[in-house]
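Table 4 source record.
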Amino acid sequence: MRRSESATHGSLAGSARHLLRLGVALASLAAAVASQAGVASQAGVGPAGLAQDAGKTDAEALWDSGQRQAALSALEAQLALNPTDNALRLHLAQRQSDVGRWEAALATAASLGPQADHLRGTALYILTRFDESLGLLDPADPGQCLMRLDSLLALDRLDEADAALAPAAAVRGQDDVALTVLRGRLHAAHGRFAEAVPEFRAALARDPCDRAALFGLGQALIRTGERSEGLALLERHRALLPLLDRHDFALQALDLDPLHADHHAQLGDIERELQWIDSAEQRYRRAEDLAGPDELAPIVLRHARLLDEDRHTPEAALALLDAAFARVPDPRLAVRAADLALRSGRAADAVQRLTALARSRPEDGQIQQRLAAARAAAAAAAPPEPGTPPAPTPDAVPGTAPGTAPGAAPGAAPGAAAGAAEGTTPAGVPRGRR
C-alpha cells in the first residue's frame, strides 16, 4: 500500500482525533511531556522564579475555564519574557498539541533536546512526515507503537512492519482493535487478501464504524471474488466518511472551547446518527449542564427525541421535558411533551398540558389546533356514558338484511346509514346526547 492510498483510506494519521477513536492514547504524550518537564526543571532549566510560576498558573486557570486560546496566548507571552525556560517551552508545545496545532508545537519545541522527542515524533507522524517520525516514535509506548506500524506501512517498508507487529502486540494485546486493523492492512499490502479478511471482520465486529477496516475489508473481498459484499462495504465506507469527518471537526472545536454547550450538543447529534447512543446521550446531558436559558430548549428537544425514538422510553423523555420546562418555561418544551403524551396514548394528559399552555398563549393558533386534536382524541378514547346502549349490529335488528346498515332501506347499499354505524343517529346527533 503506497503512501497516498494509506493516508487517504487507511492511515491512522488522518487526524489526531481519529487516532483517539481507534484507541491510540495520546494521553501517553502528556505523561511523557510532564515527566520530561520535571527532568528539565531539576536540571536547572525550569522557571527562574515565582513570576514565571504565577504566569503559568494564570494560563492554566484560563485553560481549565475553557478559554483555550487565551491560555495559549498567555503562555506564549510568558515564554517571550523567559525564552530560556525550557520547561515552560515544553509545556506550551504540549498545550498547542492538545488543540491540534501540531505545526506550532513543532516550532515551539524546535530548540529543545531529547525531552521533546515524544511530542516531536507524534507531531511529525500526524503531519504525515512518516520518515522523519520513525526515529522518534517509541515502540514501547501504547500509542506510538501503532504510529510506527502505520508509518512503516505508509512508506512501504513491509518487512520492518512485519517485525514491528509482535512488539506492538506485547504492548497493546493481540486482540486490540487498532492493531487488528493494522495486521489486516499489512496482509493486504503483501497481497494476502484472504488472510486480511478475518482480521478486518474481527475489527468491525468490535467497531462497526472503523473507517480503515471498512475500506480494507471491502477491497479484500473484491480481490477474493466477493465483489457484491465488497462493493456494499465500500459504499458504507463512502457514506460514513462525512459523518466521521464531522465528528473529528466537532471534537477539535470542543478542544478549543470545552465549556461551549452547543459543541457538546453537535457531537451528540453526530453520534446519534452514528448510532453511538450511549455516548450521544452523555453529550446531550453535558450540553444541558452547560446551557444557558436561551440554549437549553433546542438541546433538550434533541435529547428527548433520542430517549423516545432510540431508547424507546417515552416516559423518560416526558420527565426530561418537564424538568427542563421547570428550569426554562419555553413553550416548545411543553408542546413537544404534549405531542409525546398524545402519541403515547395519553390524550387526557395532552389536553391538560395544552390547556395550560393555551391560557398563557391564547393568540397561538398552532397550540389551539393541537388542543382541538387532543380533545378529539380524548373524547374518542373516553368510555361510553352510563346508560348509553351499545351500537346495534345488523344481526341484532329484526328484518335487517345482512350487509345492510341499521336505518337503511332494505336492499340499500352497505353503508347507507354510515352515520349510525359511526356513532351518530340519522339526525347527526352523537349517540347518548339526544
